[in-house]
Every structure is written in structure tokens, then in C-alpha cells.
Amino acid sequence: MPGATDHLRSRLWTAILRRRASQWLLALAPLVLAAYLLAASSLAAAVAICVIWIIADALRWRRRIGQQWPSWLNAAIPQLEDSSTLLAEDAKTPIAKLQQQRLHARLAEVLTDADYQAIARARSKLAILPLVLSLAATGAAAAWHGKQTTAAPPPATAQANKPIVDGEVHLRVTPPAYTGVAPFETGARDIQIPQYSEVRWCINNPRGAQAAVELGDGQTLAIDKDCAKLRVEDSLFWRVRGVASTRYNIRVTPDQAPQVTIIEPTELIHLLPKDAKSVQLAVSTKDDYAIVRASLHMTLARGSGENIRFSDKEVPLPQSTDPKSRSWKKQWTLAELGMEPGDELYFFLRATDNAPSPHTAQSPTYTLRLPGPDAESLESTALPSAVKPENLRSQRQVILDTEQLLADLKAHPDMPQATLRNRSENIASDQAKLRLRYGQFLGEESSLFGDEEHEEHEHHQGAGGAQPGSEIAIMKEFGHAHDQEGNATIFDPQTKAVLKRALAAMWDAEKSLRTISLKTALPPEYKALDAIKELQAAERVYLHRTAFVPPALKEEKRMTGDMVGAMSYKRAQGVASDTVPAEVRELVQALSQDGVLPALWSKAARDAITARITDQEQKLSAQRAVQDVQDGCVPCRAELRAWLRGTLADAPVLLQARPSADTPFSKAWSSKEQAK
Question: In the chain, how many domains are there?
């Protein structure tokens, strides 16, 4: 039965084809995608080879199916009892024909689409080599294309692909030498160039009358045999005179300041471990053209109080193969930095580019802090312990008293309850007094040297003890008090946060001591001590040196008594520092009508736009509106008026009243107006 056998082989071929098609697509897709995106003609040969391989692979599997499909069926379908070979031969005897009929009937019942797919998966394994070769060819083409792009001229040159035609205006652009951008020529089109580039408008084989270029800022340049040239500082547009519909933009890319980054450490204040032997510093700086100088500035602070010494050091960053960037990562030993326990190192990165007027960028100041040996807290070291008053006991002494009480309680479990409560209350009182003392720095009311109940009683009297309705009472009720917690501005927010953390811990310890929970009181006591130590360690504050340097007097004026040119500048009161020109105000009013505009209106409009609009794209749009109105476009007046009104939004306002003369005529006139 050849027809049934052909149907069987066809279904096997379909399953194998579906299985192999995914592998063919995986091998062909990277090559086709790379050839389309990179426009690489070199990949055409690789694509052709891949297509030939696909065709050869399909023919090979077609031949294998024709030769091996009986053995595939025997291995996949045990119910066939290894009799599939009978289907591939022509039956000559009645018994053979009967056996073929039985096999076909059994195949119709047993063999399903899932079986065909299982056979295809078992026989057609995933071919890794073609996919690897395809990806390798794609990667090589991408690398070659990237190398060609890097070796190509900068973007400004890459855009200059419009052909130059005789008789038409074309551009010759010469960027500044320090940018490293090569000069280029292009036809009339939109371009982007570095700031301070020299642009020339030229014509090859000029025809007819002399051509001229109209710029967006109102200038008109005649194109002669030496071309028309301009040193471009801001973005502008231009057109050839007489061709009002075609404008071309010249966008300027300003030279940016270097970008400096401190990579390691990541915190502005980095606390080193006590046993630290080294520290890693990593810095990086980048610029759009080149970096000529980059250095790491270090300042080492040693000592405390008024006996603090500073030593400065500057370390230049090593140059790299890329002049646009410098990176440095080094593991410094503390001996190289000169740091000892208790010292602080302040460092920042400074970089300068290669512009004619160099830009300098500086990173924030980072701090490396190496803890010193443990010292007594501030209040315990300020006074000798032998003569220390009870109300100035230190946080460390509170901890020692609490630990001593715990030890005594462990040694004498039968300690009287009254004695235990009395000693715990005394420690709690010491903790409360210490808390009130530190609370003064946050503006809290303190009862350190007075009776708390008496002060509380006075606090509830009218306006702090003053007579109700008196001047003092009114001032205290409605005035602004600077001794409140939120208004205490003697410390920075970070120091306030540490103080609040210490006070909260002291308050928790006091509550535990009041309830005779000694073990619960120790953790907040240690937490308060750590906060106090942190405050002591932050007693040094690093600030960049900033000072006013007055201008030097001329030597010939010294000791002469001549004050001309030596007095400070004084501005007259009531005079605005900057006023909107009257011609601009008149132009805004005139643009709301269809009448004749004031004389020299275009110059006033362009000057206002140049002086008051900083965004380059907005400035180009406003200058286009000026040129449109100048060409006679009446509907364009509304757009220009909107741009000019936008420039007047930040106009200064004179708030002082102007003096007016009170004459007999003005009095008579005002009385006449009132009589009406």
C-alpha cells in the first residue's frame, strides 16, 4: 500500500521540519538582523552560506526519513513488534499483504501527532555549532563596524554628507583646535558644532547677483570671493537672502565642565575600624574633550580643642590612554596617609579641562575618621572626680553605679527592698539630671539647679509668672521664643539628631531605673554613652577657606588722601537695579494690533530675546518669530508678542513709593475731583 506509506513519511517529514525550522531561524536571525542594523555588506556572504546550509540540511533529513523511518517507528512504537520493515516493501504473498493491512490498522489506532513529535525530538537534536558560528560572525561584524565608527570623524562631520553643488551656498566649519574635531565641509543643512567654531559660507562658481546670508540675530553677511565667516558662540539659524522658506539651524554644543566622582568610600563621613591598617580610595573624572590636570587634595587634622594642627597634601592623578578620562584606585596604608588614632583626613577631587578658559570642577569633601583611644566623657574629664558635684555625674558613672548595684544584688539576694529602691532611685535621679543638662542644648527647659515641682507650678501661672494682661505676658504668649527645641539653631541637623538619640536613650534608662529594672536599664545607658562619644569625636569641623579679598589700591594713591576711586559702591535707594526697556514695552503693545510697528523694533526684540532667554531652542524659536514678522507675517505677531511677554515675567518691581509734590494747583484739582 504505497499511498499509506507516503502519508506516513509525509507526516514524519512535517514533524522533523517543524523541529529543524526553529534551529534554522536561530542560526539565520542574528546574521540578518546584524546585516540590517549595521548595514554591513560583509554579512551578505555569511547569510548566503547560512541559507545554503539550511537547504542542504533539509535535503539530508529528507533522505534520512526515506531510509530510516521504519527503524524510527519500531523504536518509538513497541506495539508494532518490530514489523515496520514490512511497510517499506511491496507485499507479494497473501500473508504479507494481510500483515501490512494489520500494521496499517494498528498504526491508525496507536500513532498520534504526539508520537510524531516525540520521534522528531528524539532523532533531531539541537545543533549548537551553527548557532555558535552565526553568533561569532555577528559579533565580529559588530566589532568591525564599531571600530570603523570610532575611526570615523565626530558626529558633526558624520552629518556632513550633503553634496556640494556649484552655485549653491555651502559651509566650511573649523572647530577650535583644543576640541580635536576635524574641519569639514557640507551643503546647506542643519548641523551641530562645538562652541566658538568658525563657520564660513562659500559658493563654488557663483552665478547671478552677489548672495548674502541672513542670520537669526539680525546680521547680514555678504558672500564674496573669500566667503563670509563668523565665530559662532550661540545657536542660530541662517538663510540665503531671497529664499524665505528655507532656514537652516546651527546648534552649538558648549564645552562642559569635567565630571568628578568619588567612588570609594561611598559615605561623606567614613568611620574606620580601630584596628584598620589601610583604606581604599577610588576616584574618577571625565570630560567631553580632554583633562589637563586632576589631583586629589588631602588635609590631615590632628589634635583636639584649640590645639588642632592641619597639614595639606596634593596628589596628582596618573594619566590614562584616554585623554577624556582619568581613574585611580589605590589601597592606601594609614602610614602613607600619616594617620594616627584620633586623626581625621579630609579629601576632595579637583579636575581642570583644556578649554581656553579652563573649567574646574571639585567634588564634595569626604572625611576619613580614625577613632582614638577610649576617653572619659566630656563632663567627667572637665572636673576632677574627687570634687565633682553630685548633679554633674557623668554617663559613665551612671553605668558604673548600675553595674555595681547589679553586682551587690547578685552577692546579697536578700537585700532589703527599701535599700534597693533607694539606690535605684538615686541612680535614676543622676540620669535625669544628666538628661536635663544635655537637653539644654536643644532648648529644653532644665530644672538642674532648682526645684522641679516649684518650676512646674510657676509654669502653670499666667505667662510664666507675669501678671495676666501685662506687656511681658503678651510678649511671652504671642512672641517668637528662640529657646524652644525646634528653634535651637546652635547645632547642625546631624548634631541635633545625635543629641536627640542620646536624650531618648537616657529617658529609657531612667524609666527602667525608676521601676527597678536594672538589667533593662543598662542597654540604653550604653547607647547614650556611645552617642556622647560620637558628639565628642565630631568636635572638628572642616570648612573650605573662603574670605573676602578687597581689590588692591593703586600704589600712586596710597598715602595721598585722594578718595576718588577708593570708595565703595553705593546704590541709590529706590532705583531698580534692572528695568525693562521702554521700547520693548511699546513693542509688546504694538504687536497686539495690526498697525505699524515702532522704529528699530526688530533690534529691540532681538536684544531682549538674547538677554532674557537662556534656552537655546527657545531662543531659536523666538528669533524665527522676529524674522517671520519682519517678512510681513501678520498672524506671527501673536507668537512674537507671547515670546516678548515671557521675557518680561522676571522684570523687577519697584516697591517703594515715589514722592509727589503737594502744590496749590494739585490741592485745588483734587478738591474739584472730590466735588464731582
Answer: 5
